[in-house]
Amino acid sequence: MVNIAADYNLELLATGVVLLDADLQIRALNLSAENLLEVSASRAIGSQLEEFLDESNEWYPLLRQALADNYPMVRRAVAMTTRTGQERTVDITLSPIAAEVGTRSLLVELNVVDRLQAISRDESEWQAQATLKEIMKGVAHEVKNPLGGIRGAAQLLAGELADPAQQEYTDIIIAEVDRLRTLVDRMLGPKERLESELTNIHEVTEHVRHLIEAEAKGALAIARDYDPSLPDFYADAGQLTQAILNLVRNAWQACGDSGLITLRTRVLRQFTVGGNRHKLVCALQVVDNGPGVPEALLTRLFLPMVTGNAKGTGLGLSIAQRIANQHGGLIQVQSAPGDTCFTLLLPMEV
Length: 350
Fold this sequence. Notes:
Layout: H1 4-8, E1 16-20, E2 26-29, H2 31-37, H3 41-44, H4 60-69, E3 73-81, E4 87-98, E5 104-112, H5 113-160, H6 164-188, E6 197-199, H7 201-216, E7 221-225, E8 233-235, H8 237-255, E9 260-273, E10 276-288, H9 295-298, H10 316-326, E11 330-336, E12 339-347
């Protein structure tokens, strides 16, 4: 058997590489291909490719044609559907190679186009968040200084007023100034310095689950689908608790007490987050069965003061994204009616 991963060190590639024999039986595949086909190498090797890829894929007949003609082929932006129904857009390169005497094998390279597009969007989101952070710091400085002056003047004025009825107005001024200062502090998001320690993500999610269930008084259903193989990693558990709490509360507001929220964890290998490639990434998904996020809000969802909830402040998701960014990660969202998924991606650099 040809060990393509060992011979060519293909485990580090983001491109999925699969080696097929003349009968389209899988002889070897790298880690990216395992993730793409949603199967482990031990399960895939020796099996037919059709066990993991739906036969409706339009490029499937090209495999036999490439073998028969002994000629390489390239196809761009081709739809690919796995047996589990996952749809991807991939660039495909088919390269016939000589195997044993009188036989040929086929090297299949699968480059996921929509993942590259997602990486580009993630980088743009990362840069936008960094720019927004600097803008907000400047705005906060300009706003908080005059607020301090207004509060001090109101306190002095209150001391000069003999009529208690008039002092009621100065009390209102002071209370409103304090409210505005609190709002500005919330818009600035979490503290800059992380207090990192080895953290178990499932301890954090379980803590959040207990908090939400206590608030909902048993009216909300929360399902769990945890990957027990996730290792502990360095993070600020307090900050992550706040970020995940914001995501779960947002899901609760979307689906209501009669809805269902699912907390799911997975490990991603050799995954790119914000333009940086990491060996291991924790993917924490908060899924709800609410009506979905309006299309017009999706691109602005993590900006401060943007919300689809008439009673919301529009700060929860913005703060959660800031916390994710401070950990070197980010939050992605995919939404359709009945299935909205926020994915918190956290590099697990131990």
